Amino acid sequence: MPTVLLVRHGRSTANASGVLAGWTPGVALDDRGREQAAALAARVAALPLSAVVSSPLQRCRETVRPLLDVRPEIELHSDERVGECRYGDWAGRKLSELADEPLWRTVQQYPSEAVFPGPDGESLRAMQQRAVAAVREWNARIEREHGADALFVVCSHGDIIKSVVADALGLHLDLFQRIAVDPCSVTAIRYTSARPFLLRLGDTGDLAGLVPKVPGAESGPEDGDAAVGGGAGAP
């Protein structure tokens, strides 16, 4: 099965000011975020990417733009299901203020029970369900269109990526706050018929090891089998 590279958007103006952006319009990358987005394009330069799927929010579209500018052959898709959690009445507020809300402890300790207030608020469970469904559906589509060794990017948001990782690892959603992904980091998951493999988590370094191996270049376990003993890693 293909490998999905879950890219968190670069640092945004909301990140820098400690604001929970949610779906607030007009939240762009700051200067540091634009530097991170430019560096991302270089970091994935060696990877044979088949497609980019992006959250429709501005900070994600700005993150993938440098990559698409140098790789115009890569097809871009937009999918609201990998858009940010809908934080409802919490959106646009300072995190330091939200930490005093009674719901904050639920979000931290029992996120599976958290439902954000207001008519536009959603639960973290619903957020995870839509995000996981989107990633798995895109994974199947990319395999049909580009083959089992394809690589593709999904540019999304911190809580979205953490929830997808938790699902891949078989973790209860209440444990997803133990996962951290920095701005413009890359988390790589390869889904197989047996199990998902978490290949990178919040990686901000070199990604050359994700280049697909040449078929028949070496013997090893069947696809979907874990490498007993840990394996040899990238050549």
Automatic annotation (TrEMBL):
Substrate binds at R8, H9, G10, R11, S12, T13, A14, N15, R59, E84, C85, R86, Y87. The keyword Hydrolase applies. Signal peptide: none annotated. SMART domains: PGAM. CDD domains: HP_PGM_like. Pfam families: His_Phos_1. It comes from the Bacteria. GO terms for cellular component: cytosol. GO terms for biological process: negative regulation of glycolytic process; regulation of pentose-phosphate shunt. InterPro entries: His_Pase_superF_clade-1, His_PPase_superfam, Phosphoglycerate_Mutase, Phosphomutase_MSMEG4193_put. The active site is at H9 (tele-phosphohistidine intermediate), E84 (proton donor/acceptor). Keywords: Hydrolase. Residues 214-235 are annotated as: Disordered. GO terms for molecular function: fructose-2,6-bisphosphate 2-phosphatase activity. NCBIfam families: MSMEG_4193. This is Phosphatase. It comes from Wenjunlia tyrosinilytica.
